[in-house]
Structures are given as structure tokens and as C-alpha cells.
Write a structure and sequence with these properties.
Layout lengths: L1 H55 L2 H10 L5 H28 L14 H26 L3 H26 L4 H24 L10 H40 L1 H16 L2 H16 L5 H28 L1 H8 L8 H26 L3 H26 L1 H27 L5 H23 L3 H24 L12
Helix pairs in contact: 1-3, 1-4, 1-5, 1-6, 1-9, 2-3, 2-4, 2-7, 2-9, 3-4, 3-7, 4-6, 5-6, 7-8, 7-13, 8-12, 9-10, 9-12, 10-12, 10-15, 10-16, 12-14, 12-15, 13-14, 15-16
Length: 483
């Protein structure tokens, strides 16, 4: 676990730097082009994100598992790596053609009379992102996490400089560079690194076209499930927004959107870093149920130790966060946000189980667990929102994550005979009790002092436990950390 913590710290730091670069780009666009410029860029981002999800076929996820599980066989790893990179390249070309060359694609953005540069930039963004997902999956599966961090940071820096120059000199048309600059620069830099790393596999016997197709088909089969799960989640969120708008009004829908963005993003850096280290590791243990169960236990405990204090402070400071990120009128959504944040405590163990299911090729089980959350949330949304308004939406989210965690436990039990250790049960139970106490102190008692004491105590305790993991003072947590 000491190795895992170091890898996570590197990737989290790189994610933060990339986020800072993104803020600088948006600030520059807002400064020079105003809200209309930011809105135009946001519309293009929304369309390209959807295209990337559909065209990419989830190879960025399934490729990690495929490359990582072949670490002991150089020829097999070379075959899987080439299949991943070639497949990503083909999908990138398809994405570019579909977005850049097909007539009418710009109409999806709703931008009136967009210049031709925007269409090309959208196609280039889809192509470079899809291809780079395959490249990063190759590096991730090979354990080259520090190289991933360097490429992401350098690409963000170069793309940000290009954006500042383009928007400052070309104005509105420069938004094309603001959209495509970072993904193109990152993909180009990563290609150089991948080419060098691929040479270490060049001594293996050559593979046939049939073998490449077989490996690519296997990766696509798993990737399609991930894509389908993402699509179902996006559709469920769209349905939720429409229900909230129809039942509670457009203003309530805006408040829900604002809080959902916060809950989506505030842990994204941490979970991306945790996943980059954890997924390849558990993929290598797919044929060792006992070791996979221990790795799952370690990951749940580590995730709660790191994310628990973050969630606690987020619950405490919810009104302030809404005021800073949006405006004073959004603070009326503080109860909704707090209920949503409480659900994240239950989401985190399920998140770790999700990677286990993907690593062990339990594709249907993974999809079912995702469907459980979405179906439960939508089923409860209507009656609870009618009874309690926006607060009912938050309660529906928390109950949905409770059923999601139960579904994940059943799926993990079937996948590898998983039974949680006492340490894991204590960690989940303590995190749940802490969250309940924070909700009670902020919502029922209205006492920020009690909530602040709880958050500070949780931070201190978790910091001590994480330090013990880092220094290797807790033998139980070190089992199967690196394989």
C-alpha cells in the first residue's frame, strides 16, 4: 500500500495542475470573449464529450486491464498493446470523419453560423482524445504512472499557452484552439513516450492479424459494457433533470445541476488517481480470488481514509462552497448538496467493487450494479421530490447508493467469494456513522461547531492512519499491495 500511496500522490498532483491549467483557459476565454465565448466553448465540449464516449468504445478502460494482465508474457503483452493502439487509431479516424466531415454536425451544438474551424477542432478533439485514451491505457497497464503524469501536465501547459495566444490574437475563432489544443498536445507528447516504451517489447515474436483482431474484439466487448453504463447514467441524469424541472420548476433544476456538478467533480481527481493504480493491480489478480479480495479490502479502506475527511469538510462547508462557486442564491440548495455528499460515502466502496467486476470480466454484473443505482434513484425521485422538494431529491440519491452498495457486495461475493475483513467493516461503519452525525449536526441541530469538531477529528484520525500506511507501520494493510 505504500507503493499505492506514492503513485496516488503523483497522479493527484498532476490532476490538480491540469485542473489549474483548465481554469486559466476558461478565465482567459471569459476575460476576452465574455459569457458568450464560455457558452460557445461549453456547447462544443458537450458535443465532443458525447462523441468521445460513443466512438471510444471504452478501450481506455478495457485496455488497461488487457495490458496489465499480460505482464508475465512479453509476446502476449506486445500483441495486446498493438491491438489496443491500432484499434484506438482506427476509432480516432472514424471519430474525426464523423464529426469533421459529415454535414450538419455543427447543428448539434446550437451555435449559429459556426466557422469551419470549429468543425475541424471538434473532429480533432474527438480523434486525439480517443487515440490518447488507448495510449494512456497502454502506459497505465505497464505501470508507467509517472510518465502518464508528465504527459498530462506538459500537454495541459502547452495547450494552455496555445489557447492564450489564439484567443488573444484571433478572438472568437481562437476557440477552436481552446477546444483542441490540450488534447492534441497531450496525444502528441504521449505518442513519443509510447513509441519509446513499445520498443522494450520489440524483441517478442511477431503476432498475426488474426491474433490482433481477437484481442481487440475482447477489449471492445468489455469496453462496450463500460460505454453502455456511461450512456445509461447520462440518460438517467437527463431524466432526473426533466423530472425536477417539471415537478419543482426550472430554478430547482438549475440548483440540482449546480449541486450535481460539485458532487461529480470534487472527488474526481482522487478517484482517477486511485483507479489508475488499483485497476492494473487487481487485473493481475483476476485468477486469485483470495488475493483479489484482500486487494479490494485494502482499496476500500484506503479510499475511505483519504476521501472521508474530504467528504466531511464538504458537508460542513456546503453553503460556503455554493456561494463561492456560484452565487448567494444557490445556497438554498445546501440541504440537497449535503444529502448527495452523504451518498458518496457509500459510493466509494461500490466504486472499488466496480473495478473488481471489470477485472474479472463480470460484465453483466457491472452493468446490473449501475442499473440498480439509476433505477432506484429515478423510482424514488418522483414521490420524494413531491413530499420534500429538493431535499427529497438528495434523500433519493442517498437511498439509491445504499441499494447500489448492497448490489455491489452481492456481485463481489459471486465474483471472488468476497467477505469483508473486520477492518473494512469498521472503516465503512465509522464513515457511515460520521456522515450521519454530520447530517444531524448541520441539518437537524444547525450546529456548525459540532460538525466542525467532527470533521477536524476525522481528519486527524485519518491522517495518522494514512501516515502509518505510508511508513509501513501497519502490517495487515501491506498484503498484496504490489504484485
Amino acid at each position: 500500500m505504500k507503493h499505492a500511496l506514492r503513485a496516488i500522490s503523483i497522479l493527484t498532483a498532476s490532476s490538480i495542475l491540469v485542473a489549474v491549467a483548465s481554469v486559466l483557459r476558461y478565465k482567459a476565454v471569459a476575460q476576452w470573449l465574455g459569457s458568450s465565448g464560455v457558452g460557445t466553448l461549453g456547447l462544443m465540449v458537450a458535443v465532443t464529450t458525447l462523441a468521445i464516449t460513443v466512438v471510444g468504445l471504452g478501450l481506455g478502460t478495457s485496455g488497461v486491464r488487457s495490458v496489465a494482465q499480460s505482464a508475465e508474457d512479453v509476446r502476449l503483452q506486445r500483441t495486446k498493446s498493438l491491438a489496443l493502439l491500432i484499434g484506438s487509431g482506427i476509432l480516432a479516424v472514424i471519430g474525426f470523419v464523423a464529426v469533421s466531415l459529415l454535414a450538419g454536425i455543427e447543428s448539434l451544438t446550437g451555435i449559429p453560423d459556426p466557422p469551419w474551424e470549429f468543425r475541424v477542432a471538434m473532429g480533432a478533439t474527438v480523434a486525439s482524445t480517443v487515440f490518447n485514451a488507448g495510449q494512456l491505457a497502454f502506459l497505465n497497464g505497464r505501470g508507467r504512472l509517472h510518465l502518464m503524469a508528465v504527459c498530462n501536465i506538459a500537454g495541459a501547459a502547452i495547450g494552455t499557452v496555445l489557447t492564450l495566444v489564439a484567443v488573444g490574437t484571433a478572438g472568437y475563432t481562437g476557440l477552436a484552439v481552446a477546444l483542441a489544443g490540450v488534447p492534441l498536445a497531450t496525444a502528441a507528447l504521449t505518442a513519443v513516450v509510447v513509441k519509446r516504451d513499445l520498443r522494450s517489447l520489440s524483441g517478442a515474436p511477431r503476432c498475426t492479424a488474426r491474433e490482433l483482431w481477437s484481442e481487440l474484439r475482447g477489449m471492445a466487448a468489455l469496453g462496450v459494457v463500460v460505454t453502455l453504463a456511461l450512456t445509461v447514467g447520462s440518460a438517467a441524469q437527463l431524466g432526473a433533470r426533466l423530472l425536477v424541472r417539471d415537478r419543482l420548476g426550472l430554478e430547482a433544476a438549475g440548483l440540482y445541476q449546480a449541486t450535481w456538478v460539485i458532487t461529480t467533480l470534487y472527488l474526481s481527481f482522487l478517484l482517477a488517481s486511485l483507479g489508475a493504480e488499483y485497476f492494473p493491480r487487481i487485473s493481475r489478480l483476476r485468477h486469485e480470488p483470495a488475493a483479489a479480495s484482500r486487494a479490494l479490502d485494502d482499496q476500500i479502506v484506503l479510499t475511505l481514509l483519504i476521501a472521508g475527511p474530504i467528504i466531511a469538510w464538504a458537508i460542513l462547508l456546503a453553503p460556503l462552497g455554493l456561494r463561492i462557486l456560484y452565487s448567494a442564491e444557490f445556497t438554498t440548495a445546501d440541504e440537497l448538496l449535503r444529502w448527495q455528499l452523504a451518498g458518496d460515502v457509500l459510493k466509494l466502496p461500490g466504486w472499488a467493487v466496480g473495478f473488481l467486476l471489470l477485472a474479472t470480466e463480470r460484465r453483466l454484473a457491472f452493468l446490473v450494479t449501475e442499473l440498480v443505482w439509476n433505477a432506484t434513484f429515478l423510482a424514488l425521485l418522483l414521490p420524494l421530490s413531491q413530499a420534500w422538494g429538493l431535499t427529497g431529491v438528495g434523500v433519493a440519491s442517498l437511498v439509491a447508493y445504499t441499494t447500489y452498495l448492497l448490489a455491489c457486495y452481492v456481485a463481489a461475493r459471486r465474483a471472488c467469494g468476497y467477505l469483508p475483513r473486520r477492518t473494512t467493516l469498521v472503516a465503512v461503519g465509522a464513515a457511515t456513522l460520521l456522515t450521519a452525525a454530520l447530517l444531524a449536526s448541520t441539518l437537524a441541530l444547525g450546529s456548525p461547531l459540532i460538525a466542525g469538531f467532527l470533521a477536524l477529528s476525522a481528519t486527524a484520525i485519518c491522517a495518522v492512519l494514512v501516515r502509518r500506511q505510508w511508513t509501513g507501520q501497519q502490517p495487515e494493510a501491506r498484503v498484496e499491495s504490489v504484485r
